[in-house]
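Q: Hand in one record:
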Amino acid sequence: MPNPPAFEVSKDRLWLPFMAPVYARFAQPVGWAVFRVVIGLALVMESLPKIADPLGQIGFLEAIGFYPGWFWSPLLAGAQFVGGAMIALGLLTRPFALANAVTLLVTVWYHVNFPYGDAFLTEAGVQVLKAGGDLLVTPQGAKRLADGGAAFLHLVQLKAELSSLFWAGGCALFAAFGGGPFSVDRLFLKKEF
């Protein structure tokens, strides 16, 4: 049985029906592969500090209920590093993507339930800033810290939540749909999970 097309494109639904083969055979498979490589390499990059210190997350993981931390910390580092590489390659994509989607959803849960707080600076820090902090920070920095850094910290909080949600969503897509036509799974192994 021949391989079905990677992506179905109905000419009837397109404004430019002659583009259907370009979308089905090039644009969609290449876009899927590029997105897979970006997600995978981002996971690898994010995992490098964890790989450098595989037991460095023990306290954090135990604080959010993952006991024993000595077990979960290296497992998290390995899942993110190896999983990211496997997703980028498109090798055993679905199980590694599912594992990373779950860990990233825990990250989303953490950022939502344990926000950074309302102030970057303590009251003493704000007083130092008002009493001559222009020697310590640039004028733009002083503006950002005038409220104790609350507005800045809220932006950092939002970025953390949205980034984790985006990466979790990307991993969930690969867990559901696989690595695509330009993956090791499909090109060489001829099988997928």
